């Protein structure tokens, strides 16, 4: 169980580091500021606008991503 907790803590710390880096650069953490989300399309993935990032609505900005997640 200790290994599982250590992996979860490492993953959470890595994600928080990613969020802080993206916030400093004012880039969306989901699409890395590109405005679109590159994914492998299959029958289980559906987005209304398939080429826009669902987190920032295609703008690529951290502020838009933060407003949509809160």
Automatic annotation (TrEMBL):
This is Methionine aminopeptidase. SUPFAM superfamilies: DnaJ/Hsp40 cysteine-rich domain. It comes from the Bacteria. It comes from Mesobacillus selenatarsenatis (strain DSM 18680 / JCM 14380 / FERM P-15431 / SF-1).
């Amino acid at each position: 169980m200790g290994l599982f907790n250590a992996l979860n803590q490492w993953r959470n710390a890595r994600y928080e580091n990613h969020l802080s880096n993206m916030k400093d650069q004012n880039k969306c953490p989901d699409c890395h500021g590109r405005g679109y989300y590159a994914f492998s399309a299959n029958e289980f993935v559906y987005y209304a606008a398939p080429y826009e990032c669902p987190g920032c609505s295609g703008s690529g900005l951290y502020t838009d991503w933060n407003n949509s997640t809160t």
